[in-house]
Amino acid sequence: MDYERIIYIVNRKRNINDIILIIMLIVLPLAALSLNLAFGEKPGSDSLVVITVMGELYDKVPLNQDTVIEIETELGINRIEIKDGQVWMSYADCPDQLCVNHKAVSLTGGQIVCLPNQVVVSVESSIGSLDSISE
Prior knowledge:
Layout: H1 2-39, E1 47-53, E2 56-62, E3 67-72, E4 77-83, E5 86-92, H2 98-101, E6 111-114, E7 119-125, H3 130-134
Antiparallel strand pairs: 1-2, 1-7, 3-4, 4-5, 6-7
């Protein structure tokens, strides 16, 4: 009889621990997501659109400045649009059109690359980066 009572207590304690573990697995990710949304990087805040053509810097434009940039080289033509804190390639005369079909980027580290025309569009932070300090 004592053996059955011990098994009952152990199983009950394990069930309570399982419930606590399940609650923690739900609550912790939700808390992390909430903190990220509250304090994480906001799209377009203090970011620059950096455009390079054939490996050379072509232009740097603030991500919050709505503009259209047309690049014409011997390799081809690309049109880059910046609007509402997002940047995308609206036109390219390259054959595969991967850059045009790429979704708009707005967060630091986002890139759009047109390999045939050798155009790279990237979003970089204008605050605290090594490039902004060295310039």
